[in-house]
Write a structure and sequence with these properties.
alpha/beta, 8-stranded mixed β-sheet, globular
Amino acid sequence: MTDETHDLPTFHVLALSGGGYRALYTATILKEFEQVLGRPIASHFDLICGTSAGGLLALGLASEIPASELKSLFEDQGPTIFNTRNFARRRLGFLSRAKHSNAGLRSVLEERFGTTTMGDLKHRVLIPAVNYTTGRGQFFKTPHHPTFEMDYRMSLVEVALATSAAPVYFPSVRNERGVFVDGGLVGNAPGLFGLHEVRTFLAPKQDVRIRVLAIGTMTVGATVSGGRDLDQGIIGWGSSLFDLVISAQESSVDYMLAQSLGDCYLKIDDQVTPQQSGDVKALDDVSEASTNTLRDRGTAAAQRALGDSRFKPFRSHHAARPTFYHGPNKNSEDL
């Protein structure tokens, strides 16, 4: 956008990608940002979007949980979240059961979020999931529009479980709204959804400036070896099918946002080096090697971003108090 648009209303969107334990990379960046900014990151953004593990972080930020605590949650509770099932079920592998139970993840979420609901949040959020009951994408949102009349009753625990139910890795989850699987199937990089949310619900038919800060998870993706047998079934594909879906979707969103927003879009992510690819390839690797790589690369990425001229507007922006139409934080007289 040109210098002539300086007086336009401005909306800043934070978009956090999914990536399992690799979200430690994201959490490290957020922790470094918050330390420099000196105030909750949520106060710098008009909308926070997060998918899967990025959804957990988004809900945490919107609850004004310090980013340092969210980083520690992944570091300290990673083995609890990714608690591989017993030996008998491991032998069955991907053929009959998910690799991990979600009991550990639920216990961590309940300890961190308690009974907090979407309606209790004071910052706008958008959390993608897939409603397996209807076969459609579903987006859990704070009640920042008059038509958003149901999600505010959802607990953060149930929303987090829904967006992070990665096929093969975790079981699907059932709540009062249906059966849900991981939001990465519909939008692992939720920045495009954030852009649409502003244009459609927050500032419809208005001339506004929208900036998107997207943070990835060092997504390795899935590529085919030159010598691979191309005729693969369930066993041959395994978890690589889900990895391929999220990496292909993420790269497409990155391209479209860059084309749409230009310098108003900043993506923070890192290409994995050959030496570190084994450390972070798996979504559920909580080894010392993966922890060190994700934490160290996240720290370096934060330092690089803080020096990027495109980050300066995010640093100085103070989000206005959002309008909520339903729930305990309702502050609109429209309904």
